[in-house]
Write a structure and sequence with these properties.
There is one protein chain. The chain has 485 residues and is α+β, with helices and mostly antiparallel strands. 58% of the residues lie in helices and 16% in strands. It is built from 16 helices and ten strands. The strands form two sheets. Strands 2-1-5-4-3 form a five-stranded antiparallel beta sheet, with helices on both faces. Strands 6-7-8-10-9 form a five-stranded mixed beta sheet, covered by helices on one side. The longest helix has 52 residues. The radius of gyration is 30 Å and the shape is elongated.
Amino acid sequence: MTSEAGKHFESGAPLPLSRSLPQPGRPPYREPEERLDRLHSYFLEGCGDEIRPVLEGVLTDARRVRNGYGDEDVGDGLASVWYAAAAIIELGAALELDEADVRGAAAAVAEACALPLSAARYVLFSAAVANSRLLELPPLVAVEIQLGLLLGFDVLGDVSLWTQNQNGIECIAILGTDGGPSRRVRAEAKATLRRRSRLSLLGGSQLRSIPVLRFGEAYAAIVGRLGSVEPDVADAYLTEAAAALSPVIERERLLEHSASRERTLVASAERRLMRLGFDLHDGPIQDVLALAADVRLLQQQVYPFVLADYQHQAYGRFDDLSSRLVELDRQLREIAHSLETKSVISRPLGEILHREVDSFAERSGIRAELEIRGDPDSLSSAQRITVFRAIQEALANVREHAGATNVSVRVRARRSAIELQIVDDGIGFEVERALAKAAQRGRLGLVGIGERVRMVGGTFELESAPGGPTTLKLTLPRWEPLTPQ
């Protein structure tokens, strides 16, 4: 979303939308749909194509909110605030929100609900920082959105969030300044974490600070320079922000614990696969090499006893056996190599996936395409391995069972999740029956993908029917720690 719409609202200039805002002194909107439609049009102004369906979903939810209140005027007003708050969060999550948009949204709510601008800002801020969608985002993203709203509403000129650990205090987020935090800001954060200080003076400007409590103890501290509002107004905003940040930080601690468990589980699974790779190399691969040597020796020993008329045919048969053993050796080495994960972690994931898909197309003769959107290299090691293994196993299933001529692999790295979709144009199958039979026979390809994904907190969907196509979708939640590990 561009900031132009926000500038229109603040300047009072006519909006380039299908409807114009009511002029001062005129009554607020009376049509049931008009307030929400107006807000929706404002938020759609200049936003990207990918966020539009999300905002349509927000609008649908806001209409349910309005219907739930019953009273038309009350319902319209509260639904308008709810919509604007949810839209702000979605735009922030999609990196399509700036400070002018925030101020313009407050002006839009003020007009839609016939509220003073200062009241609309506070109501909208309170609704936005308490929006449950923030608890679905990576904690660092949620923190940046919540702190950014303090800047967007001119409550603070700059703001930082601090936490403490065994090594002292640490700034985990800072907005509104190009440089790092000053020593006095650091000192204020330290004092706040120790004694819950809320106000200190720095030269001619004011520092405002408040602790973020967890079970009654100061776990973090918000510190910022006062913006254009009065100190008591800033304190009201900071109180709302601290209360809203508490569950976000608590979720971060839970995710950190979950991520630790995830790393342990994935590492254990990968160790078993690595052991299998070593066993293949030291066992079956060596046996194949020995068998190939025996075939060559047998060829030399048998050749003198073969009649001249049959020597060419006998040589052909031995050559066929040797070729098949060479191919078997190649396939076993390829499998053993694919079980290694060191390169998956150390090399760019895009490169690894392109190599895997290209290798699949070359081996199988099936046309395969790979599309990667976003930055897949920002994934954790466990997520990288899970994505790689899922693609590897899904392509193996396509090669062995699907009878497909085309397969597409799409990876999308979003701020809140990693999405993977694999579609083939094969013969398809009845999902429940096929998975049940595979599990009974110990063939756990697709079942194994689902278990691996669920093990790291993701979701797994498989859609197919006789005649095809078959679509595999998986989603892994993103998580980045607030503090470096």
